[in-house]
Amino acid sequence: MKRPSSSNVTELIVSWGNGDEEALHKLIPLVEEELHRLAARYMRREKRGHTLQTTALVNEAYCRLIDQKNVRWQNRAHFFAIASSLMRRILLDHAKAHLSAKRGGRMQRITLNDNTLAVDQQAGELVSLDDALTDLAAFDPLKSRIVEMKFFGGLTTEEIAEVEKISKRTIEREWRKAKAWLHAAMLK
Known about the structure:
Blueprint: H1 6-17, H2 21-44, H3 54-66, H4 76-102, H5 114-139, H6 141-152, H7 157-164, H8 168-187
């Protein structure tokens, strides 16, 4: 299947942001495949046995995307940066719910096995990473956004530079600093 041009997607995103519902109906088929790729990328990082499926992640992100009211959509890269952020938040909410349930939030008997322990560990790591990203965002929101777009969203350096309206070199430099900071923060 031929990938839609970035300018076509951008035009539809901007039109939709300006209230054109027909643009949304035209946009969905153009971005669906890429949203699935983005979700699949997230899910590959999850341990086997994860209860959330790729399609469910796409559907939940789609529902949250169309509920965005106060976003001034800029372009395709901006759209996928927001989608990436929403998918990260969905997986984080899912991980927190899983950990809450593990601690008695939804009392039910489970059998412990290696797969259960791996899922618990993955959920804990995701929550730890989110905590570190939240700390990073408190004093350097740009670095936090770059990590979110690059690591979670799979956006290229060029796409992030387009969203942030800064140079590729700055993005690359900030990405290196953010990785080093997160690495140190996660070891604490």
